[in-house]
Design brief:
308 residues; alpha/beta; Rossmann fold; Alpha-Beta Plaits; six-stranded mixed beta sheet; 14 strands; elongated
């Protein structure tokens, strides 16, 4: 697979805050690639640098053969960008939004109109061509943003948290759109903090946190690396001293205030052990939650905190 995006030693510092800390990453041509992590992990900064909106402090980023730092104009011709929140020109009709955007790339009006009609049909917006952008639902506006990003036929499509704020039905509809675009062989890079989204859509996923790459693989391989069969999270009525716990049926534990996370091969053996421990120490159990291995359980095991 040919490398479409190459990132080497990428750093971004904002004052005293290091948003990216030496990120190395290669993304192949035709991949649907996910950057998974919580808010503040460095995902949006990475996308900002790759799309020329953010200047890196140091390091190299090459997209479709263009160094984004040395040739930002050339790089912008190779990419399409779907922002986290739709930002259409609200004074224009839906179709006019696409034609107007095409003029930025020197596309003749007749060709821009042809592409507009084709994209609106592909994305199920033909009947909205003469509607105001404000009249569209959230999901329709996001599909309009995808159409706008594709109007100049870029090699790489970037989406930053594309389903934030969408209802479940609109989210699933957008997943279908992304699967169709991926099926056409387009390289797609998306950020998300929804583990299910990364699991369902992406060929490979990079888990990032605090500006560092923690894990990189296919969703199935990443889930296979999650420790234990189950994570048992017990919330007590007050904080517990942060000390190692030796409990029957539990491979390891993490204590954070009133929350005890236990990793166990067999939950049936571990849960009674946890409850007995709490009772013996005089704690009341307020909540207990079990999670099967997933991208989120791997993230928890790597960072000690949840994605959201």
């Amino acid at each position: 697979m040919r490398t479409e995006i190459h990132i080497s030693g990428l750093r971004k510092v904002y004052g005293q805050v290091t948003a990216l800390d030496g990120l190395d990453l290669d993304i192949g041509e035709g991949e649907l690639f996910g950057l998974l992590g919580p808010n503040g992990a460095g995902k949006t900064t990475t996308i900002g640098i790759l799309t020329t909106r953010v200047l890196a402090t140091s390091g190299t980023a090459v997209v479709a053969g263009r160094d984004v730092g040395k040739d930002p104009v050339g790089a912008r011709r190779m990419i399409g960008v779907v922002p986290q929140r739709p930002n259409p020109d609200r004074s224009l009709l839906v179709g006019e939004n696409l034609v107007f955007h095409a003029t930025y790339f020197g596309i003749p009006r007749a060709e821009a109109s042809r592409r507009t009609d084709a994209l609106l049909e592909q994305l199920g917006l033909t009947d909205k061509k003469k509607a105001k952008a404000d009249a569209l639902s959230g999901g329709q506006q996001q599909r309009l943003m995808i159409a706008r990003a594709l109007i100049h036929e870029p090699r790489v499509l970037f989406l930053d948290e594309p389903t934030v704020g969408l209802d479940p039905q609109a989210r699933l509809a957008l997943w279908d759109v992304l699967r169709e675009l991926h099926g056409q062989g387009r390289t797609i890079v998306m950020t998300t903090h929804y583990m299910e989204e990364a699991d369902q859509l992406c060929d490979r996923v990079a888990i990032v946190d605090r500006g560092k790459l923690l894990a990189l693989d296919t969703p199935s391989e990443l889930k296979a690396k999650a420790p234990g069969e189950t994570i048992i999270e017990v919330t007590l009525d007050r904080p517990l001293p942060d000390e190692p716990l030796s409990l029957a049926g539990v491979t390891r534990t993490e204590v954070r205030g009133p929350v005890v996370r236990a990793f166990a091969e067999r939950a049936a053996a571990a849960v009674p052990s946890l409850l007995s421990f709490a009772e013996s120490r005089g704690y009341a159990v307020k909540d207990i939650h079990l999670s099967k291995p997933s991208l989120e359980t791997l993230f928890i095991s790597l960072t000690g905190r949840k994605l959201a």
